[in-house]
Design brief:
The protein has 2 domains: 48-304, BirA Bifunctional Protein, domain 2, CATH 3.30.930; 320-378, 3-Layer(aba) Sandwich (Rossmann fold), CATH 3.40.50. Helices cover 29% and strands 28% of the residues. It has helices at 21-28, 44-63, 77-83, 111-121, 167-187, 266-270, 294-304, 332-347, 361-371, and strands spanning 32-36, 39-42, 67-68, 74-76, 94-97, 103-106, 130-139, 154-164, 192-196, 206-213, 219-223, 230-232, 250-264, 274-276, 282-284, 286-293, 306-307, 310-311, 322-324, 352-354, 375-377. The strands form 6 sheets. Strands 3, 7, 8, 9, 10, 11, 12, 13 and 16 form a 9-stranded mixed sheet that branches. Helix 1 crosses helix 7 (294-304), helix 2 (44-63) packs antiparallel against helix 5 (167-187) and helix 2 (44-63) packs across helix 7 (294-304). The radius of gyration is 23 Å and the shape is globular.
Length: 378
């Protein structure tokens, strides 16, 4: 891509309402623009990073045995009444009526919709196990949207739902997804910790949050030397000693980017979602669910990876892998050599940006530092 053809409206200063570094830098780097409170437009650079995060997620979800589908964003009240969540979810659930005065909601999560689908399509133990996922826009009417993509009202989320015959099989699926999440965040180039956590409004009996470590993180977590053992402030032992390693737990700040839940039969019982076992007897499906905030992951990467000049993208999720910066683009020799490098990289399948603008080296370098593409040729 030529810089002169790319919509990258960089800013010298961040808007006054931008509070955290990721929000400031995504606005300044021309990655997002605010449309309304907690609702953002993804500009080309921002969307390129989002798509790279999504690609990593898809590859690892597919490798873990999950299948991608796409559920409706809008769901009828009746489904949420079956689960019991319509009266208790709160004002975060955006509710509205259609022209026939029927109640609907805009999905903040999709346990109801996917369980309704599966109860109608899965009937035999031979069809199990099953894991279904989607990457979709969600909406939660947060009382105080803030921090850009970190706590927006409209956001992109990967949500996956698993269905198994029994607790043993469902637990195996849970830990397989747990390992898939570790691979996802490693490939995103992030330092993170899986943290034992509560289940909240989703329900269930077992849950882990995945936190990107960053000094600006909203959450305090307590981690051991084992990278797979950490606790939220609600779960940490009073003496701050890890019950598994017997070592002192260290305090970190974390940004939650994903969570996995063992749901058991909470939703399958509510929806009468059963299958016939080998003896022909009906059994409730045993479920799990697994979410990742896609935009939140990109924002957390910036919170963890930046310097005084701008973003420092991990290579795996940078909008472009390489940026070619001709110092004197009006010099024919410099221009020819620069475009030769650019075209050769393109032919090799490298995603590359060339700054072909007739700007001073200082302007080009300042913009390059701001948008943070990790590899440069100049």
């Amino acid at each position: 891509m030529k810089y002169s053809n790319l919509l990258v409206p960089t800013l010298r200063d961040a808007p006054s309402d931008a509070e955290v570094i990721s929000h400031k830098l995504m606005l300044r780097a021309g990655m997002i623009r605010k449309l309304a409170a907690g609702i953002y437009t993804y500009l080309p650079l921002g969307l390129l990073t989002i798509r790279k995060v999504e690609t990593i997620i898809r590859e690892e979800m597919n490798a873990a045995g999950a299948q991608e589908l796409l559920l409706p964003i809008v769901m009828p009240r009746e489904l949420w009444e079956e689960s019991g969540r319509w009266p208790v979810y709160g004002k975060e659930l955006l509710r509205f009526k259609d022209r026939h005065e029927r109640d609907f909601c805009f999905g903040p999560t999709h346990e109801e919709a996917v369980t309704d689908l599966v109860r109608n399509e899965i009937h035999s133990y031979r069809q199990l196990p099953l894991a279904l996922y989607q990457i979709q826009t969600k909406f939660r009417d947060e009382v105080r949207p803030r921090f850009g993509l970190m706590r927006g009202r409209e956001f992109i989320m990967k949500d996956c739902y698993s269905f198994d015959r029994d607790e043993k099989a469902a637990t195996e699926t849970y830990w397989r997804m747990f390992e898939a999440y570790k691979k996802i965040f490693k490939r995103c180039g992030l330092e993170f910790r899986p943290v034992e956590a509560g289940t909240g409004e989703i329900g269930g009996t077992l849950s882990h949050e995945f936190h990107v470590l960053a000094g600006s993180g909203e959450s305090e977590i307590f981690a051991s030397d084992d990278p797979d053992i950490a606790y939220t402030d609600e779960k940490v032992p009073a003496d701050k000693i890890c019950p598994k390693t017997k070592q002192p737990l260290k305090s970190f700040r974390g940004i939650e980017v994903g969570q996995v839940f063992y749901l058991g039969t909470k939703y399958s019982e509510a929806f009468k979602a059963t299958y016939s076992d080998a003896e022909g007897k009906p059994q409730h499906l045993v479920m799990g669910c697994y979410g990742i905030g896609v935009g939140r992951t990109a924002a957390a990467a910036i919170e963890q990876n930046h310097d005084a000049n701008g973003i420092v993208w991990p290579l795996g999720i940078s909008p472009y892998s390489v940026q070619v910066i001709p110092i004197a683009v009006d010099d024919e020799n410099v221009r020819n050599i620069s475009f030769d490098i650019y075209e050769k990289l393109q032919k090799q399948g490298v995603d590359v940006l060339i700054d072909d603008r007739s700007e001073s080296p200082g302007v080009k370098f300042k913009d390059a530092d701001l948008i943070g593409i990790p590899l440069r040729v100049k």
